[in-house]
Amino acid sequence: MNTNKLIYLILFSQLLFACISNKSAKKEKYEDSATGQVAPKPPMGWNSFDAYDCRVNEDQFKKTVDFMSENLLVYGWNYAVIDYIWWHPSPGDWKNPAMRYGHPNIRYAPDGKPLDPTTIDEYGRLLPALERFPSASGGQGFRSIADYVHGKGMKFGIHIMRGIHRDAFYNNMPIKGSEFRARDIAVILDTCKWCNHMYGVDPSKPGAQEYYDSLFELYASWGIDFVKVDDIAFPVYHKGEVELIRNAINKCGRPIALSLSPGEAPLGMADHIAANSNMWRISADFWDEWGKLKHNFKLLEEWAPYQKAGSWADADMLPIGRLSIDGRPHGPERISHFTWPEHFTLLSLWSIARSPMMIGADLLNSPDSTLFFLTNPEVIAVNQNSTGNKPLYTNNSEAVWIAGDPVSGGEYIALFNLKDSVSTINFDLKSIGFKSKVRIRDLWERKDMGVFESVYSIKLQPHGAGLLKLEVLK
User: Fold this and answer.
1) What's the half-sphere exposure (Cβ side, CA atoms, 13 Å) at 342?
2) Beta partners for 462?
3) Is the pLDDT of residue 105 over 80?
4) What are the start-end ranges of the H helices in 223-339?
5) Per-residue DSSP letters for 334-374?
6) Helices 143-151, 208-222: inter-axial angle, 10-degree rounding
7) How far from chain centre, in Å, is Cα 193?
């Protein structure tokens, strides 16, 4: 054989083998990346957005962490998350007629020069604004706050926007760990529809992976446990950037839970989403409105088959207690508009469907009654430990969900009255395989209701719910 041909064949074989190996390695990485080791159970905690919008400061955050450690941690509420635009001194205070009031857009000159302050390092990575987070001085970032949260036995999280900041693009800042700069990876036509800070990152460009690697290297050095990435799941699912972020987390040396937002995440991408993230939003921004709560029955039903250790379909935060301080981010400042029965439905549905549960309330100024719904260990056990969660049926009047109780070997049943009037649900125990006597415990009442053999009846208020544990008597 001609020597040149032999060399060509050897080189071609090596190239082909490398491509196959890389493809296989990439697939294995995705399959292993979002395992149950990071979030084996649905994450539970608090997020600042529903109460503070983009304005929470260090003092408010630490006081909330103190409150959680004293009142909620024992029940499993262990994540504390700073949401939305923590890199600006006073986001949203400027007047921007191009956007609705209160949106944290920043102003730019015609040539793209940012006109509002942005806290950013030499590699285009956003940093906490010292005016709001003074402990970030001296280049500490969120390290001090993370240490404070960890000192309480809790976990610390932050929110970020997908992409690279326009300030980095305008100044063409270098990307750490590479020879490339911001303008080499930014896509100026790929912007968020509700927050104008960022340009998207082209995942095919050299330097794109290094940029996200540098972000999560920084977050790992701060001690971050949880990152919520916004503008990545809807209206466009940014598959390439999800993979860049997943790779960066895998390499950063710290277990970080990845949350994708906002919703509704595309069901057609469910396998990819579940393989690369620990939780993902399945609903649009969820607020204290019955119509939105009712819609989540459909969404949670569609996503039920994808719930597994390490990967959780997220029906969004719990808008209970005091919300929307100073009239932002949604509606007037108020105590949640959900009725008392609707609170039962909200917590029962999130529990039986195993959605992550992130409290949205201003916990420092919410009524004591809010804690009633957050401190029931028997209800929380359904969210954290149940198995085989699925709806039995949903119609215009009522819905019934079922799940297994791995401790007793029995079943959990959630019964929902979707009507605008009082209704009695008569549930046939034999329809789910119970052919002998069953002991029923009401988890909200935290008391045994007795022994039943065929039908259990429960009277529910409009939009109310019951959550039960069923055990077969031997």
Assistant:
1) 20
2) none
3) yes
4) 239-251, 270-276, 290-303
5) EE----HHHHHHHHHHHHHTT--EEE-S-GGGS-THHHHTT
6) 50
7) 20
- Which DSSP state fits 173? P
Percent of the chain scoring above 90 in pLDDT: 81
In the three-class reduction of DSSP (H, G, I as helix; E, B as strand; rest coil), residue 330 is classed as coil
- Cβ–Cβ under 8 Å, residues 102 and 145: no
The span from the CA of 290 to the CA of 239, in Å, is 32
Instruction: Answer for the pair 162, 190: CB distance below 8 angstroms, yes or no.
Output: no
**Is the sign of the CA dihedral 466, 469, 470, 474 positive or negative?**
negative
* CB 307 within 8 Å of CB 313: yes
Q: Cis link prior to 329 (omega < 30° from 0)?
A: yes
Handedness of CA 265, 268, 271, 276 (dihedral sign): negative
Q: By C-alpha distance, which of 433, 432, 465, 429 is closest to 450?
A: 429
Neighbours of 149 (CB within 10 A): 26
Distance (Å, rounded) from C-alpha 89 to C-alpha 106? Answer: 12
Residues 6 or more apart whose CB falls under 8 angstroms from that of 318 comprise 346, 347, 350, 357, 358, 359, 360, 361
Q: Which CATH architecture has domain 393-472?
A: Sandwich (2.60)
User: Where do the structural domains in the chain lie, given as residue ranges?
Assistant: 32-385, 393-472
pLDDT band at 435 (very low <50, low <70, confident <90, very high): confident
**Contact status, residue 213 vs residue 175, Cβ threshold 8 Å:** no
- What is the pTM assigned to this prediction? 0.90
Q: 277 in the Ramachandran plot: left (φ > 0), alpha (ψ -120 to 50) or beta? A: beta
Question: Domain 32-385, CATH 3.40.50.2300 — does that match?
Answer: no
What gap in Å lies between CA 312 and CA 430, rounded to an integer? 31
Q: What's the length of the chain?
A: 474
Neighbours of 122 (CB within 10 A): 10
Instruction: Express each pLDDT in 372-416 by its tens digit.
Output: 999 999 999 999 999 999 999 999 999 999 999 999 899 999 999
